Amino acid sequence: MADTSEQLTRAILELREEEVLQLVRQRLAAGEAPLEIIAALRQGVAEVGQKFEKGEYFLTELIMAGKIFKEAMVDLEPALERSRQQSQALGTVVIGTVKGDLHDIGKNIVIIMLRSAGFLVHDLGIDVPPQTFVNKVREVNADLLGLSGLLTVSFNPMKETVAAMHAAGLRERCRIMIGGGPTDERVRAYTGADYVGQDAGQAVRLAKAALGVA
Prior knowledge:
This protein is of the alpha/beta class. It is built from 9 helices and 5 strands, in the order ααααβαβαβαβαβα. The chain has helices at about 1-15, 15-30, 35-55, 60-85, 105-115, 130-140, 155-165, 185-190, 200-210, and strands spanning about 90-95, 120-125, 145-150, 175-180, 195.
């Protein structure tokens, strides 16, 4: 499947959405392991990220690559569940923008970087209530919870989510990271989170360190 993997990597690098989805479905139908398909997708996303860092791609291309990856995962995640191969990922992450905040560009970039690094990521979207985070963490047995917020009004929902994790008995086994423009070490201490990520690259490094896979 080497040639097909290269074709899939090239298709996502060149942002050819329909071709990516077609190749993913063909490879699943042929019985290929989902993680092998995801590896080719991650390589493409990683190359998009490299072009973004060099200034060869812009934010729109980076976001588009993330959108394509997310669309492909609609087909791949059920196959992952069936094959029970999630354990081969670096770890499982639940992430979302907290209640009262509708911003998601920064969150989406972090998701792209986490997935390209080898994490299995469940994106809950925007305006997410504390209990929704708790329910998903419990459902997927997440190792790490990411709370995103661009507005200062997101601080209290972050704090409430951390408290809800405590109340659910999930706090000891799931690390919590916050991120977003106004977040810093003082906000981390206020919310009770374990880590604060200032950018997508740092978020990946902290996630690896938190799970001992750095």
